[in-house]
Amino acid sequence: MTDRSARIYTRTGDTGTTGLMGSGRVAKDSPRLQALGDLDEVSSQLGVVRALSDDAQLDAVLQAIQNLLFELGRELAQPTMPRLAGAHTTQLEQLIDRLQEALPPLGRFILPGGTPAAAHCHLARSVCRRAERTLVRLARSEPVNAASLQFVNRLSDLLFVVARALNQRAGGAEIPWRPHP
User: Fold this and answer.
1) What whole-number distance in Å separates Cα of residue 39 and Cα of residue 69?
2) Using 50, 70 and 90 to split pLDDT, how confident is the model at 3?
3) How far apart are CA 162 and CA 20, in angstroms?
4) Is residue 10 over pLDDT 80?
5) Which of 72, 85, 148, 172 could bridge 115 with an S-S bond, Cβ 3.0-4.6 Å?
6) Residue 60 predicted with pLDDT over 70
């Protein structure tokens, strides 16, 4: 006999619902679960970036962000217990400012790409924007921590800057957007 808590499957979601910590069962396609899934996808994309990059400083930043995304997921699973605060957004802003100091000024839009790590970081940024839209949609019908909305908005900005930093540090070129003539 296997200990039930050690199994990865519970069979409790086989009917299309899942349990939220202390909030009962909800449909797997509910707005709250969609937001959780989008945030999980951001974290997974960051895992790919970390696997592709050998930049220890940025790896530590991305790992810390993955941990905060888990805290945000926990917050969404227990909406009465906010986990993120304005200080988390302030930390992201400080990181953005610090990283941008070492980057050349941006004179025009750039296309996502460059090194594999940077390209995946751009993908993580676009998934983060989707997660933000999902959270905004959720906030129209259910309470969402305003600090969490701010955090996800700023996170996509940080991921753009991290992608640029990854390219610069690895010698990858940024490809400027060229409008169609």
Assistant:
1) 7
2) low
3) 33
4) no
5) 172
6) yes
| Residue 162: closest CA among 17, 89, 55 | 55
Measured between alpha carbons, how far is 10 from 128 in angstroms, rounded to an integer? 29
pLDDT of 83 > 70? The answer is yes
Scored b (16 or more CB within 10 A) or e, 32-61 reads bbbbbebbebbbebbebbbebbebeebbeb
Per-domain boundaries in the chain: 27-99+112-171
Q: Among residues 96, 115, 138, which one has the least CA distance to residue 48?
A: 115
Look at the block and give the residue holding tokens 């986990």: 83
* Domain 27-99+112-171: homologous superfamily in CATH: Cobalamin adenosyltransferase-like (1.20.1200.10)
Do 114 and 174 contact (CB within 8 A), yes or no? yes
Give the model confidence (pLDDT) of 139-148 as tens digits.
999 999 999 9
- Secondary structure (DSSP) of 109-159: -EES-SSHHHHHHHHHHHHHHHHHHHHHHHHHHS---HHHHHHHHHHHHHH
Are the CB atoms for 134 and 34 separated by under 8 Å? yes
pLDDT tens digits for range 92-106: 999 999 999 999 988
